[in-house]
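Write out this protein's structure.
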Amino acid sequence: MGYETVMIHPDSEVSQGIAEMLEEAALEFESRPSIDRNPLERVNPERIEYSVLPRDLGEAMILLVVIQGEYGRRILDWLKKVSPPTWTVEWIELTDEIPEVVDDPEPLIPGEIPKADLVLFLSEGNNTPQLVPDIVKESGAIALIAPVDRTEWMPPGQITQIKRTMLRWGVETSFPRPFCSLEPIGSEAIDRFAEVFGKPEFEITTDDGRTVSEMRVRRGAPCGCTAFVAKNIAGARIDEAVEKAGLLHHHYPCLASMDREPDLDDTLMHYSGLILKRDVEEEVGKYLKKGRNFIDPRQFKR
């Protein structure tokens, strides 16, 4: 269908009629309820109003771990086992029956939410991220870490919405993908966690120049994989340490997804293994004349 441009004199009756119609339409539009495009707040924005109060963490930190199944439980168990003694590790477990649209989060959150400085949200469901704002608010947290070890459990769209809400509240956030890629970002609470758990940092030593004597972990993966590798890599040949580390990583096993990520053209599990192998390669490289030149995981988009 074609269209034809018609010129109308501004003082004509037709022009005045159109102006009146537009004015009425504008008034009708303004009287309608506003459309909130954020499903995290679509039901009642007032229920999650919140503003962070500045605080000094000192030596202590209260960590609230939110779990929903076996994935989160394994991480929680490791954190409780090896976290610094000045930390308090609280936790709650969510139901796995989270509806597509959460109108009332209260029945889905078990009991009273402990007060915390940092919330570690370990989602195991597509709809679970909707509960993040309510849990952060009730905990009084100043920071949030929500790992992406499986994209469907923390979708990009949900991350954008959560970031927007947390930014308005003054809550600092990190969404490491995968969890073992976490590094300090300049946030007191998040960095306190990332000094201990996140992207592996370690030192490999050798007494004879041929075999690994010890792997001293400075920062380990939050699932405990780095400690497992360190315990079992001793005695491996220096020139075989990278392959040995990769094999141990696979046997742990890694908690990241085996689904291929389109933007990485790889799986998060493989990406996690590459992070570890690259760090081992850098460490043993000082004992070898020529490196193995494994794929650098930093080449992938993040």
